[in-house]
């Protein structure tokens, strides 16, 4: 799959609002790839495809995740909004021949994963701080990412954890494990 095909698939599969978000992720990912010498084609493929399964009804996401063996934690079913990344990655790898490296960036863009690659960090962070996002700390997070991808990603994870705590939402154990791993690595 090339970048043009990925863009077309995303545009065809997503609502207008979801595609606008995706274009914002592409823009931020392109900038971060340039600052960090990360291969642009891989970056753009992951950015265009990261939310491909986001608008699949949650009940169907759980069914597919069960069928494809992607349910790893109880929270995957109690908070199924985290499944869209692994679902998209699995489908794209099996049906479209997408590389496992790009698949990993898509699969882990919501929760992270211990030992995150630079591409995984880039997509995780670009999703949070893309230009259409507007929350009090977003400019500070963008600047942190421009300065240092790893430290900026850690700041993005801290922001997400604080937000989940403040809004009393479920914190997935994989996010906590990833956060602790990234803290140790930096």
Automatic annotation (TrEMBL):
Species lineage: Bacteria, Bacillati, Bacillota, Clostridia, Eubacteriales
Identification of the protein by name: bis(5'-nucleosyl)-tetraphosphatase (symmetrical)
Keyword Metal-binding in annotation: yes
Gene3D superfamilies recorded: Hypothetical protein af1432
InterPro entries: Diverse_Catalytic_Enzymes, HD/PDEase_dom, HD_domain, YqeK
Keywords per UniProt: Hydrolase, Iron, Metal-binding, Nucleotide-binding
Listed transmembrane segments: none
One example GO MF annotation: bis(5'-nucleosyl)-tetraphosphatase (symmetrical) activity
Residues annotated as domain HD/PDEase: 14-141
